[in-house]
Amino acid sequence: MIFExxxxxxxxxxxxxxxxxPSVTREEREGWRAExxxxxxxxxxxDRTAFIRAEHPSQLTRYQRGFEDGQGLLSFQQVNLRWxxxxxxxxxxxxxxxxxxPRRPVQTPPPVPIES
Length: 116
Description:
Number of domains: 1
Strand content: under 5%
Low-confidence stretches: none
Oligomer: single chain
Distance between the termini: 60 Å
């Protein structure tokens, strides 16, 4: 099975992009950096919560957000890959199907004539 963590890598890139805006304050930049660190740690399956708590307590919440979101993104990716391997990519994965919600018929309004 090929493991492609595209969602978490996109999220890491998003955190890096947010740090580059000139309007971002120093505190916001540190928050984005902590969230990025949490995502990277989730990707490499390491937990540095104790270190962040001791060395950077003001950034603990953002680090935990990144770490927990990263774990969730990786779990979602693994479920989708297993579904794809099991069913050969036919149909939606159970999580994707749930996210789309119930399907209702689309009712489009009749065309409106345009007078020139």
